[in-house]
Amino acid sequence: MARPRLAVRAAILHRGRVLMVNAYPGERSDLWCLPGGGVERGQSLPQNLAREVAEETGLTITIEAPFLVNEFHDPNSGFHQVELHFRAKLAGPDQVLLADPDGIVNRFRWVSRAELAPLRHKPDGLAAAIWSDKIAVYDPLEIIVP
Fold first, then answer.
1. Per-position DSSP letters for 29-52, written without gaps between them
2. Mean of the pLDDT values across residues 134-141?
3. What are the residue ranges spanned by the domains of the chain?
4. CB 37 within 8 A of CB 51
C-alpha cells in the first residue's frame, strides 16, 4: 500500500483577502483550494511551499507559522494526502501569473472570508482556520471530491 502524499499550502493574506486557486485541468471542477503542492525530498517545508507557489502563481512569498493540518483520501483509488497549511505574506508584487508548468492551476481568485463561504472549497474548515489565532488546527480526514 502506498504511503500518504505530503503537501504544503499557503494562505496568502493580502488586503483582507486570501488567494484561492482552482487546480483541476480544463476547468472540470468548481472546487477551490489554497496554492501549494507536493513536497520534494531534500527541501524544507517552507522551501517546497515557496517553490510551489512561485511555480503556480508567479508570486514570491514569506512563509509564516503553520495553522492547519488537513488530510483527504479517495477510498476508490487509495489516494491519501496529508496537507500542512501555512500563513504567508507577499514578498513582492501582487500580480498573479498562472505559470504552472504542469498546467493544473488554471484560475485564481482573491476572496474575503464572506466570499469564501459560498465558494466550493476544501478543506471544509479552511475559512475558520485562516481567520483564527489558533496554530495547527487538525481538520479531520475528508473524502476527496472533484
1. ---EE-SEEEPPTTS-HHHHHHHH
2. 75
3. 5-143
4. no
C-alpha cell at 14: 493580502
Architecture of domain 5-143: Alpha-Beta Complex (3.90)
Per the CB < 8 A criterion, the answer to whether 100 and 35 are in contact is: no
pTM: 0.89
3-state secondary structure of 27: helix
Q: Which residues contact 111 (CB under 8 A, 6 or more apart)?
A: 17, 18, 20, 119
List pLDDT tens digits, range 126-137: 999 999 887 777
For 108, what's the count of Cα atoms within 13 Å in the CB-facing half-sphere?
22
Which value, in Å, is the radius of gyration of the alpha carbons in the chain? Answer: 14
